[in-house]
UniProtKB/TrEMBL annotation:
GO cellular component terms, semicolon-separated: membrane
Top-rank lineage group of the source organism: Eukaryota
Primary location recorded for the protein, binned into one broad class: membrane
Designated name of the protein: Leucine-rich repeat-containing N-terminal plant-type domain-containing protein
Keywords attached to this entry: Glycoprotein, Leucine-rich repeat, Membrane, Receptor, Repeat, Signal, Transmembrane, Transmembrane helix
Localisation per UniProt entry: Membrane
Gene3D superfamilies to which the protein is assigned, alphabetical: Ribonuclease Inhibitor
Length: 287
């Protein structure tokens, strides 16, 4: 029922569809919070509510009541707020490769690898978590990295703070990672170099610092736009080279230090002029 003009809230009666496996209401005008009754749909495999006007927090019961979310959890482009519940990392079916018996067909449009793609007979290959363009804040919970079979993680255009989790290298099958336009800080974790399947990365417009890793997969991620907007990042492919003193930028001198240097210079000049004047005064009087 995507791409319609549906409005109002999602009815509580949706929870009576206990064996519902796919719910796609993308690109409508739905508002209000996610109904609590939705947690009764424990067989849910794909939940796509992106591009609506939904509000409230991401409920923690998504991770507890919908362990079968095998393919898609997309709540992007809504008015959600709060933080990412650590329980989202409990989506157990995103932790393992789906068995062949579950490789059913479907038809869906999803945004992955930086562009919109259509999936028909290969929908079972999609494992996507998209919480982009909402108002989420706080840090990225390390528990998310337990979703080792996740293929796409998009948390861009939020207000996320703190560091990128050091355990991010646990995403063994990750192909697309978009953390752009947040307030993330610190260095790029070295473990990210182990994401050997990653072919689309966007870390732009954060507060990241330090040297960009240059091993493994990072050797192919050579587009400067991936890292732009992080003024304290350095190294290839950015034009800003890292300083040789352990990768740390030299501390800029303040105005007070410049004034001290200026005073010292005039002291030396004054001493030198005094010495010259005394020297000529002594020999002048002798003559």
């Amino acid at each position: 029922m995507s791409n319609n003009s549906l409005s109002g809230s999602i009815p509580e009666s949706i929870g009576s569809l206990r064996t519902l496996r796919f719910l796609v209401l993308r690109n409508n005008y739905l508002s209000g919070e996610l109904p609590l009754s939705l947690k009764n749909c424990t067989f849910m495999e794909s939940l796509d509510l992106g591009d609506n006007n939904l509000s409230g927090n991401i409920p923690a019961w998504i991770g507890a009541s919908m362990p079968g979310l095998l393919h898609i959890l997309d709540l992007s482009h809504n008015d959600l707020s709060g933080f990412i519940p650590p329980r989202v990392g409990n989506l157990s079916d995103m932790k393992v490769e789906p068995p062949k018996s579950v490789q059913h067909e479907g038809r869906l449009r999803v945004v992955t690898k930086g562009s919109e793609r259509k999936y028909f007979t290969t929908l079972y290959l999609v494992n996507l978590l998209d919480l982009s363009s909402t108002n989420l804040s706080a840090e990225i919970p390390a528990e998310l990295t337990s979703l080792v079979h996740l293929g796409t993680l998009n948390l861009s255009h939020n207000h996320l703070v703190g560091k990128i989790p050091e355990e991010i290298g646990n995403f063994e099958w990750l192909e697309t990672l978009d953390l752009s336009k947040n307030k993330l800080s610190g260095s790029i974790p070295p473990s990210m170099a182990s994401l050997i399947f990653m072919n689309h990365l966007n870390l732009s417009y954060n507060n990241l610092s330090g040297e960009i890793p240059n091993t493994n997969q990072f050797q192919t991620l050579n587009d400067p736009s991936i890292y732009e907007g992080n003024l304290a990042l350095c190294g290839d492919p950015l034009p800003k080279k890292c300083p040789e003193n352990g990768g740390r930028s030299p501390v800029p001198r303040g105005d007070d230090e410049d004034e001290d240097e200026h005073d010292k210079l005039w002291l030396f000049v004054s001493v030198a002029l005094g010495f010259i004047a005394g020297f000529w005064g002594f020999f002048g009087s002798s003559c």
